[in-house]
Amino acid sequence: MNIPDNWTFDSSDVAAGFEGHVREQLPWYDLVTDAVAQIGRHYIAEGGLVYDIGASTGNVAAALRATVKDRNGAIVGIEPSAAMAERHNGIGTLIRGRAEDFPFEPFDFAVSMLALMFVNPNAVPALIDRLAKTCKPGGAVVVVERTLPPSGYPSLVTSRLTLAAKAAAGAPAEQIVAKELSLAGVQRPISADVLIAHGAVEWFRFGDFAGYLIEGAA
Question: Residue 62's pLDDT is what?
């Protein structure tokens, strides 16, 4: 896949190569997808509503399909990119739009997997707050994102963990560098403090990337 100078999901080339590219750049991608599906089994109620925020090609929806089907639920994907939406696997309902503008209905389970870091950082706190408040009691919000690194030497250490994993997965060094430069100003890591303020529990961490779980208020 050709890395654009300025990263965009509206590129047909990016959309076509996304499945292989994301697994090369993030070797833990499938492991975390499976973990999200297992977490969903604990929170999706009978007839439950599930949101897939930043649905891309439908990877999360596919992982949750069996649970949602068995419990007569519904999956709604939200995806702003037309190029990515064209490659969605068709599981559930897909709506073109931005999560920060979307009128969420009370839901049982919502997943934002590598999506919030592409939202305007000024809009992220309000979006997380709205998700936390719209989640039904007994439900949950799962967030998997690139987060702001710690300070000092650990910041360098954790960043290199991610780089080393990409190289070990076979990503060429020039593509790793090109991707990082391409993301400048487009991908903005989120602050874990915004999640922790809503009682988020960290359940996954690899380098700069982390997974958090926020339960719906009783």
Answer: 95
Secondary structure element (H or E) that encloses residue 40, with its range: helix 29-43
Pairing of strands 107-113, 74-79: unpaired
Amino acid sitting at position 215: E
62, 30 contact by CB (below 8 A): no
Calculate the CA dihedral of residues 33, 181, 190, 43 and round it to 10 degrees.
Answer: -10
In 3D space, the residue among 63, 57, 54 whose CA is nearest the CA of residue 20 turns out to be 57
Report, as an integer, the average pLDDT of 107-126: 96
Q: Sorting pLDDT into bands at 50, 70 and 90, what band is 29?
A: very high
> Residue 145: beta bridge partners?
210
pLDDT at 32: 96
| Identity of the residue numbered 178 | A
Q: Is the dihedral of CA 213, 179, 4, 185 positive or negative?
A: positive
Strand (E) or helix (H) holding 21: helix 12-25
Q: What share of the chain is helix, strand, coil (3-state, %, to 5)?
A: 45, 20, 35
Dist. CA 126–CA 40, nearest whole Å = 24
Using only C-alpha atoms, the chain has a radius of gyration, in whole angstroms, of 17
What's the length of the chain? 218
**131 in helix, strand or coil?**
helix
Whether this prediction's pTM lies above 0.90 is answered by yes
Residue 135 neighbours by CB distance under 10 Å: 24
| pLDDT tier at 50, thresholds 50, 70, 90 | very high
